[in-house]
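Run log // design_07
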């Protein structure tokens, strides 16, 4: 092992001697030089930062507790007036005609696919760089997810690789605005129109994000949100579907309520008009969301401002490539601040060691999503009894063959990012993040 390591290291040094050292000598001097100096914490030195960052979730002891307690005291805990109030306010906030609250982002997505009649025999285009639920819901609906490679600069699905995956069975596109950074909706919607496909937006990380001034979630046929504990608008677990078509939204309502008809008869027994499930939000969840909603705009502004500042500080560090936003993005929500780590600029220091060094300096940093198209659940599902009964061998094989996403594979080895809660801090918090990265860069020789 030692011998191979050494050979590889020598190779990296040799490979990086020319152009890379030229880049290194041209780095502008900035930030806190004294903080960046000194021994790395991971090697026993003093951590650059010992203060904690903003924790999550955040709540207001008086106002939020009162809202939840008033639900408790009313004795009406199942879906009623408070949920309806949340739906009206969330629809208004999003600029959508209607909103249906659900138990989770996952059930919001399942409801959307069900009412748009997406299921057995259909193919749905989706990117592999996402949370597992975006792909699981397609398979749970009986449809085949067809993977479209990722644009590594933006971390979003690459619309230029989408059309080549369309067949006569393609029924919908499920664009995910991953990390709350909007996908390229001009191109995606143009492809959808040209090929007569439906668009279900997974906006589960994109509260208040905007494409050309319109909110994510209102750009396709239906938009889905999550209010799980880590999300920017949260009540522990929760979700919503938003849309502008009354008839489709009535169907969503019906589907999420055992298939009862929408409207006055929604709570009467009998007269079920469709096969449905139950994923109704409780009054407690809605009360918490109404309380949380008051802070969302301000927090979104803070995250946006800090993200922009952080980009300006780290973009010139060799080997650190911040995400790019598409030209049509008028606002990003930043569920995570993603960047790519190019080990070759750090003398080949593996990403895991870079992240460990960063954490030792007091800066929490994650490594993003793994390649879901290679995750065991995918093959396990294609190989399941259900799928073998629903699809021919040829179609299952085509799904497997369509599944290669080389740009995404690469991205999954380079991605890193800071949680949204770090972006809720101060400018000095961002300085600490940048200084810590720089400290590691300057000491890279001592780590490899
Ligand atoms: C969180 C999330 C979901 C699922 O939402 P839940 O509320 O956890 O069910 C789906 N897609 C994406 C992109 C998410 O981040």
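design_07 sequence
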């Amino acid at each position: 092992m030692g011998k191979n390591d050494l050979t590889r290291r020598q190779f990296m040094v040799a490979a990086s001697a020319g152009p890379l050292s030229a880049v290194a000598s041209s780095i502008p001097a900035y930030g806190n030089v004294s903080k960046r100096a000194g021994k790395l914490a991971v090697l026993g030195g003093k951590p650059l930062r010992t203060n904690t960052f903003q924790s999550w979730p955040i709540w207001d002891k008086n106002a939020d507790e009162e809202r939840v307690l008033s639900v408790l005291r009313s004795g009406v805990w199942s879906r009623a007036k408070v949920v309806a109030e949340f739906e009206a306010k969330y629809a208004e906030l999003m600029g959508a005609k209607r909103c249906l609250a659900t138990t989770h982002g996952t059930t919001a997505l399942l409801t959307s696919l069900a009412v748009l009649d997406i299921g057995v025999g259909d193919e749905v285009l989706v990117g592999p760089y996402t949370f597992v639920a975006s792909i699981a819901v397609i398979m749970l609906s009986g449809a085949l997810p067809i993977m479209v490679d990722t644009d590594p600069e933006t971390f979003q699905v690459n619309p230029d690789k989408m059309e080549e995956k369309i067949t006569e069975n393609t029924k919908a596109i499920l664009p995910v605005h991953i990390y709350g950074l909007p996908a390229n909706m001009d191109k995606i919607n143009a492809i959808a129109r040209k090929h007569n496909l439906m668009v279900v937006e997974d906006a589960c990380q994109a509260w208040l994000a905007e494409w050309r001034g319109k909110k994510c979630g209102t750009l396709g046929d239906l938009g889905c949100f999550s209010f799980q504990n880590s999300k920017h608008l949260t009540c522990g677990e929760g979700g919503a579907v938003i849309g502008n078509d009354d008839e489709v939204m009535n169907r969503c309502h019906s589907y999420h309520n055992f298939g009862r008809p929408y409207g006055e008869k929604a709570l009467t027994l009998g007269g079920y008009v469709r096969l449905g499930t139950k994923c109704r939000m409780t009054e407690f969840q809605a009360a918490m969301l109404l309380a949380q909603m008051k802070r969302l705009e301000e927090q979104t502004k803070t995250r946006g401002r800090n993200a922009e500042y952080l980009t300006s500080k780290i973009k010139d560090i060799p080997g650190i490539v911040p995400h790019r936003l598409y030209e049509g993005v008028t606002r990003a929500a930043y569920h995570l601040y993603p960047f790519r780590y190019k080990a070759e600029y750090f003398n080949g220091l593996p990403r895991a060691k870079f992240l460990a060094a960063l954490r030792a300096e007091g800066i929490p940093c994650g490594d993003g999503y793994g390649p879901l198209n290679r995750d065991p659940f995918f093959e396990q599902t294609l190989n399941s009894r259900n799928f073998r009964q629903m699809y021919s061998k040829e179609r299952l094989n085509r799904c497997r063959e369509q599944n290669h996403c080389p740009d995404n594979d690469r991205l999954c080895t380079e991605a890193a990012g800071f949680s949204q809660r770090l972006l809720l801090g101060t400018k000095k918090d961002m300085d600490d993040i940048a200084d810590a990265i720089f400290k590691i860069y300057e000491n890279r020789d001592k780590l490899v």
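The two ends are 14 Å apart (CA to CA).
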